[in-house]
Amino acid sequence: MVKWTDFERATIQDIFSKIDYDVVGPAAFSRCLIVYPWTQRYFGSFGNLYNAAAITSNPKVAAHGKVVLAGLEKAVKNMDDIKTTYNDLSVLHSEKLQVDPDNFNLLADCLTIVVAGQMGAAFTPEVHGAFQKFLAVVVASLRKQYH
Questions:
Q1: pLDDT computed for residue 67 by the predictor
Q2: 10: number of Cβ within 10 Å
Q3: Which end of the chain is more exposed for a tag (fewer CB within 10 A), N or C?
């Protein structure tokens, strides 16, 4: 079980209360698909992903970015038991979708960049540390089902 300090809990809740899901989710997911083009292989049904402009204007990409943030919101609401909260998602991504688990780290990095850009100077090293810890727990929980 992860031990969260009061600062970490408050910081994570504050970040998610302030970010615009309609902007951050699509931006982070788009960035991941653009910077790491091999991640696109899981999204063949999304249509045109041939270049950055096509990816950033793709409504399916934007919608999935929002889904990702909604999933993270579940983790925020269940910080004391993220592994159980993400059990079904872990099974889905490992067994049905067969997503390379390293992609979770790539998306987490892209999310960190977008959130830092949104928060500006408020994204201090301490805030960054709390956010990275949260994302590390989320990624570990998603990877749980992999062998």
A1: 93
A2: 12
A3: C
DSSP string, 35-89: HSGGGGGGGGGG---SSHHHHHT-HHHHHHHHHHHHHHHHHHHTGGGHHHHTHHH
Rounded Cα distance between 136 and 101, Å, is 13
Token reading at 13: 């809740």
Nearest to 142 by CA among 96, 97, 92: 92
Q: Give pTM, 2 decimals.
A: 0.91
Q: How far apart are CA 137 and CA 117, in angstroms?
A: 22
Tokens 């910080």 belong to residue:
79
pLDDT digits (tens, 9 = 90+) for 46-90: 999 999 999 999 999 999 999 999 999 999 999 998 887 777 777
Under 8 Å between Cβ of 56 and 63: no
Which of 140, 51, 81, 68 lies closest to 110, judged by CA?
Answer: 68
